[in-house]
Design brief:
Strand order of the largest sheet: 5-4-3-6-7-9-8
CATH architecture: 3-Layer(aba) Sandwich
Shape: globular
CATH class: Alpha Beta
Distance between the termini: 34 Å
Helix content: 40-55%
Strand content: 15-25%
Number of helices: 9
């Protein structure tokens, strides 16, 4: 059995998705509150920046992967208008249910799909052929703070490229590796404060310890750029945020 990492722990590949699901089952109800506390509300600014960079236009087709409680999907839905579509997906049903219910409370009815990003249940992206054939696939795919939890990141990136139309864009908003000057205070905060807040507010220190560990195991910005190019994205820009703690990668499908 092939092995992978679950935080700092080495586990069989078939165990990782199950254990990640357990983490998010545990934190779903207080996920947004904890994000606000842990980031000082900055996660909202990072997501707003990603939405601005996306430049979504009316009529576009957008796929939000690992969309959780629906922050990006909500913003995109208001931009695509009546003739566009935003599909909200997550592998975790508890997270997706929270996101769907929040959107419904705001009057937004979006298609929501429980699915694995490594095996997306959508057609290949293609431009419309002659004779009036319709284009298939998505103009934009987004994944915010979800890629690092996927077992086979390369496979997930290839799937994201597959469902995009040629020229479509992928936005990956994710934690990255900060510069050396920030590592010591960042590590102290991640491994001391995050689990403590997790225990006090969410009643779960272990899940937030895993989240801190998963960030350290995620590829740095340069490595992720290389992975995206290998997955079929001909051009990849990297936007470093918060002193390099967060990075937004924008890839264009060949």
């Amino acid at each position: 059995m092939a092995q992978t990492h679950f935080g700092f722990e080495t586990v069989d590949e078939d165990q990782k998705a199950h254990r990640v699901r357990g983490v998010f089952d545990s934190v779903a109800a207080r996920y947004d509150l904890m994000n606000d506390l842990l980031s000082g509300g900055l996660h909202r600014a990072w997501k707003a920046y990603a939405v601005a960079v996306a430049g979504v236009q009316p009529g576009m087709q957008v796929l939000d992967i690992a969309g959780g409680t629906g922050d990006l999907a909500r913003a995109f839905a208001r931009q695509v208008g009546r003739h566009g579509r935003v599909v909200l997906t997550d592998i975790n049903e508890a997270m997706l249910r929270v996101g769907r219910d929040r959107l419904l409370d705001e009057g937004l009815v979006l298609p929501t799909v429980v699915c694995d990003a490594e095996r997306l249940p959508f057609a290949d992206g293609a431009v419309g052929a002659g004779g009036g054939a319709a284009a298939t696939g998505f103009d934009l795919v987004s994944v915010a703070f979800g890629l690092r939890n996927m077992t086979h990141k390369e496979a997930a990136l290839r799937e994201m490229a597959r469902v995009l139309r040629p020229g479509g864009r992928l936005l990956v908003l994710e934690f990255s590796q900060p510069p050396a000057a920030l590592r010591k205070p960042y590590d102290w905060y991640s491994f001391k404060v995050m689990p403590l807040l997790g225990r006090w507010v969410a009643g779960d220190a272990d899940s937030y310890r895993y989240l801190a560990e998963s960030i350290r195991m995620h590829p740095d910005a340069a490595a992720l750029k290389t992975m995206m190019k290998s997955a079929g994205f001909g051009h990849v820009d990297v936007h470093r945020l918060a002193g390099g703690i967060v990075a937004l990668h924008v890839g264009i499908r060949c």
